[in-house]
Amino acid sequence: MVRRSNLDLTFSSVGSSSLPNFAVKSLQTTLLNWYDQQGRDLPWRNTRDPYAIWVSEIMLQQTQVKTVIPYYERWLQAFPTVSDLAQAELDRVLKVWQGLGYYARARNLHKAAQEITRNSNGIFPSNVEQVLALPGIGRTTAGGILSAAFNQPLPILDGNVKRVLARLIALEVPPAKALNLLWQLSETLLEPEHPRDFNQALMDLGATVCTPKNPECDRCPWTFQCQAYHLGQQSNFPMRETSAPIPHKFIGVAVIWNEAQQILIDKRHPEGLLGGLWEFPGGKVEAGETLAECIKREIQEELGIEIAVGDHLITIEHAYTHFRVTLNVYHCQHINGIPQPIECEEIRWVTLEEIESYPFPKANIQIIEALKTFVASQVS
Q1: Where are the beta strands (DSSP E) in 6-72?
Q2: At residue 222, does pLDDT exceed 50?
Q3: Which pLDDT score, from 0 to 100, does residue 11 have?
Q4: Strand 17-18 to 10-11 pairing
């Protein structure tokens, strides 16, 4: 148990909380003053359009601001309104999203836009219950949208905010074990007259000052109340869960050519990881299999055709949130059989030029680039 300093805050680890009114007011005032001077100028903060703010909130889930900005601007050019997004084909939606990762976010945006268009004529709802009923929107996202767009006094609790609050009270368990307490604290601290600015300030504090490593406490407006700071143990908070080793999968991937120099690609089912994206077929190497044996088996199981495995094209290392993959990619020749979408949504023969119009996962884009280099070398 961490020994606490003699501060105005008194909290139990996972139970109820109490915070004197003067402490709340001081925290609110100092944070808003800091935000007025230090807050980031971000494109979605220059609008009150709930649709544009919704898009930003979804894109910012598990993705850094600097990565999001060009995607956000490109998205709004492609789909400037809810109705434009609702009417778009999913393939186009995923193509615009391509490279941002966590593709369920794009699928949920598309599905939710269709619901909004169907139920409220394309007008984004201002009622929190209606917002929470939309696909892909939880309590933090709803609070972020409605506070930013309509200045509604709704709390948030994203990763940055959890870290700030855990350090503020020197939370003695990992945040995942104290979510009710952290929600209560976020709601208690929320400045009711300026919830838009307060929530944005809280996120900025975590993103730019109270960072996971080496927090810049000399720039923080809350050090006067921060338990972790006064204990000199900022790096020990938030406390972490014990994590299991990350699985590593070895995948055999086939670039299948036919006699017309077309390449076979397949579309994943719409649900699950990378749902709705196109890819080069293949699968996991089983125990005792060679890569060639794996690729032949997978293609027979997935597409019902016979292939000859040829030369190695490229090996790609790629990491997802909960596992890593090594993609071993080989040129293959179609030998016999008509391809069938046995374990996928759809299949197509395409030229290397045509392939650019299809949305692919990030790792598969590297395969396409390797193919371009290979074809160019054959011509020269």
Answers
A1: 10-11, 17-18
A2: yes
A3: 43
A4: antiparallel
Phi, psi of 54 (to 5 degrees): -60, -50
8 Å CB contact between 19 and 45: no
The rounded distance, in Å, linking the Cα atoms of 198 and 33 is 10
- Distance between terminal CA atoms of the chain? 68
Q: At what angle do helices 139-150 and 50-59 cross, to 10 degrees?
A: 140
Cα–Cα distance, 276 to 259 (Å, whole number): 28
Dist CA 201 CA 375 (whole Å) = 51
Residue (of 163, 137, 149) closest to 200 by Cα position: 149
CA distance 293 to 298: 9
Q: Which residues are catalytic?
A: 57
Domains of the chain are: 10-236 (1.10.340.30), 248-379 (3.90.79.10)
Q: Is 103 helix (H, G, I), strand (E, B) or coil?
A: coil
Which positions make up the binding site for 8-oxo-dGTP?
268, 279-282, 364
In the predicted model, what is the mean pLDDT of residues 112-125?
96
- Known binding residues for Mg(2+) are 282, 302
Would you say 102 and 273 are in contact if contact means Cβ atoms under 8 Å apart? no
Q: According to the model, what pLDDT value does residue 4 have?
A: 44
Distance CA 349, CA 334 (A): 11
Phi-psi region of 261 (alpha: psi -120 to 50; beta: other; left: phi over 0): left
Is residue 316 within 8 A of residue 363, CB to CB? The reply is: yes
- For 312-325, letters b (16+ CB in 10 Å) and e give ebbebeeebeeeeb
Mean pLDDT of the chain: 92
Q: Tokens in use for 177?
A: 């074990």
Distance CA 23, CA 40 (A): 26
pLDDT value, residue 322: 86
